[in-house]
Amino acid sequence: MRILLFLLSVAVSLTLCGADAPRGVEGKRVVAIEKFLARSGSGATDHEIDLVHDEILDIVVNTRKFTVVEREQILQILKEQGIVDAGMTDGKGPESNKIQAAGYIMNGTIERVEVSVTDLPMPDGTMKVHEGIVEIMLKLVNAENSKILGTKKIEGRFRAPPSYFNDASGAIARDVKAKAIKAAAQDVVNALVERAYPITVLSVNRRFVTVNLSAEQTQIGDV
User: Fold this and answer.
1) Spans of the chain, pLDDT less than 70
2) DSSP state, residue 86
3) Which of 57, 110, 202, 205 gets the most CB atoms within 10 Å of its CB?
C-alpha cells in the first residue's frame, strides 16, 4: 500500500510580548472587540472605520469558536470571578475555569486605507487597474492582567479587474476598499484564532493527519 506523507508547516504569526491568556477547561474563548482607531493621515473615513469593526465582528462570530462581548462586560466578568475565587461569596458566580480563557481584548490602529490606480497598456490605449490597500496594526491584550499578548501588522489587498470605465463617481474605489477591508479583517481574525487555538495535530494514521482547523479557516492548497 502506498503511504502518503503530509508535511504540516505552522508559522507563529504574533510577536509575543508577555504571558498568554489563561486557558479554561470548558467553553469557548471569549473576546471583546474594541473599535479600531484610525491613525492621523490614514485616509480612513468614519464609514470605513465602522466597516473594519463590523467585518471583524462578523468573521469572529462565524468562526463559532468565540463568545463576543463588550469590553466592559468582560472586565466585569473577571471582577466578579475574582470575588468568587477570593471566597467572598457563597460560591455562586462565574467559574474561573470556564471564563478565564476569555481574557482577550482585541484592538488596533488603522494605518492606511487607500486605492492605487495604475495604467495597464493595451493595443488600443490603456486600462485602469484599481487596487485597494488596507493596513492595520493589531494588538491582543490579556483582559485579566492587561498584558499585551501579541502584535501583528496586517495588510489587506484587493485588485479590481482592469477597466476602461472612468471612475469619476468613485464606485470602483469604494468597492475595492471595501473588499480590501474584508481581506484585512479575515487576517485579523486568523491571527486571533492562531493565538486562542494553536494548530494542533489531533491524530495520525497511515494515510491521514487530522488537525484542529475548521472549514472556515482552510481551503484547498493551504500549507
Assistant:
1) 1-27, 75, 78, 81-103, 215-217
2) T
3) 110
